[in-house]
Write a structure and sequence with these properties.
Blueprint (H helix, E strand, L loop, with lengths): L4 E4 L5 H13 L10 E6 L5 E8 L2 E6 L9 H16 L5 E4 L4 H6 L3 E6 L3 E5 L4 H8 L10 E6 L6 H13 L2 E6 L9 H11 L6 E5 L18 H23 L3 E5 L5 H16 L3 E5 L3 E2 L2 E2 L2 H9 L3 H7 L2 H7 L2 H12 L7
Parallel strand pairs: 4-5, 8-9, 9-10, 11-12
Antiparallel strand pairs: 1-2, 2-3, 3-4, 5-7, 6-7, 13-14
Helix pairs in contact: 7-8, 9-10, 9-12
């Protein structure tokens, strides 16, 4: 590495970023839209011969040109990115990689969590991270015959979420309720968790869980080496469901309840993949028609749009009293202001 230098590339550095894009494109990779750190390895002629990035606790957009592969540059790149992550306080790291690259990351101490056929492998830098997550999930002292599950983001918690959870609660002896804990939504997770718990406090057969880094959201899923949008959606869904199946087997979950999807293409495709994979794994999947108001299905997107437009009368018809009352507080009004500043509150 005496002839090479590795440095951070800032968004304002136009020429360096052009080199990054050119290198990624040559390696069949599109630059991920979610990046918070990018670096490059430059030779003595200031030519880029390696690049890699971070987002949150993940490593991504890693590329070395063909004529420099075999020079241990990838090891140098990953060592640098891991060092940056550790400086940030991120010690539990994740990487999504092509199947052919998985052995390389395994040699660097990454452990496979799940994979999707020939498309993608999800790995972490701990050999017991996912196992520890499973062991930390709260279980019932005695496992009843009918154990189901619901996963909600609740951005924000609505009457539709409440209706789905109530139905699961009424039709089963135990509900494992997973709350997407990644903080990438307009409504922060601490608020979402509080509203979910308040809106389901009357149900006595629920065990609450956070998803941690193992059930994935659109915000963090990498799409940079998948060929088209539908492939991205289906691959994300397949990986997410592979992880859920492992969780379900650990908790003896026999079914999952989801709302149908009249609006979002992403969720509709996700549900298609989920039905196929869960049925194949022997887990029943119940797709429940959405609760409606004014003959229209309730959705979090509609609620955010109504908040953005100051249409509180519409919001009140779509959320539990606990959610509405929260938005009337000073903290709630700050979130409304945040939603108003957002350029797009819809979910595709």
């Amino acid at each position: 590495m005496n002839d090479y230098t590795i440095i951070q590339i800032h968004p304002s550095e136009r020429l360096a970023n052009q080199q990054v894009d050119a290198l990624l494109n040559a390696e069949g990779i599109s630059r991920d839209k979610n990046l918070d750190y990018t670096c490059g390895i430059f030779d003595s002629n200031d030519q880029l011969i390696g690049t890699g990035s971070c987002f949150g606790d993940t490593l991504r957009c890693l590329a070395i040109p063909q004529d420099h592969q075999g020079e241990s540059l990838m090891n140098t790149l990953i060592s640098h990115l891991v060092s940056i992550q550790y400086e940030r306080g991120n010690t539990h790291l994740f990487v999504y990689t092509k199947v052919k690259s998985a052995p390389f990351f395994a040699n660097l101490g990454f452990t496979e969590i799940a994979r999707v056929a020939d498309k993608l492998v999800f790995m972490e830098n701990r050999n017991d991270g996912f196992a520890n997550y499973l062991n930390q999930l709260e279980q019932s002292p005695s496992i009843p015959a009918k154990v189901t599950s619901v996963i909600v983001n609740a951005n924000p918690f609505s009457l539709g979420h409440q209706f789905l959870i109530e139905k699961a609660s009424q039709e089963n002896e135990l509900v494992h309720l997973f709350m997407v804990s990644e903080d990438k939504s307009l409504v922060p997770f601490a608020v979402r968790e509080k509203l979910i718990r308040q809106g389901t406090a009357h149900l006595k057969n629920i065990i609450y869980h956070t998803t941690g880094s193992y059930l994935i959201s659109n915000a963090t899923f990498p799409s940079y080496f998948l060929k088209d949008e539908e492939t991205v959606i289906r691959t994300q869904a397949a990986l997410d469901i592979e992880l859920f199946i492992k969780i379900a087997q650990h908790l003896k979950i026999s079914s999952r309840y989801v709302g149908d999807e009249p609006y979002s293409q992403v969720t509709r495709i996700y549900n298609e993949v989920m039905l196929e994979k869960l049925n194949h794994a022997g887990i029943n999947c119940y797709v429940i028609p959405r609760l409606e108001t004014n003959q229209q299905a309730i959705s979090a997107s509609k609620i955010r749009l109504a908040l953005k437009q100051d249409n509180l009368a519409a919001v009140k018809k779509m959320v539990p009293a606990t959610t509405y009352d929260f938005f009337m507080t000073a903290e709630g009004k700050k979130i409304i202001d945040r939603i108003k500043r957002s350029t797009d509150v819809r979910h595709y």
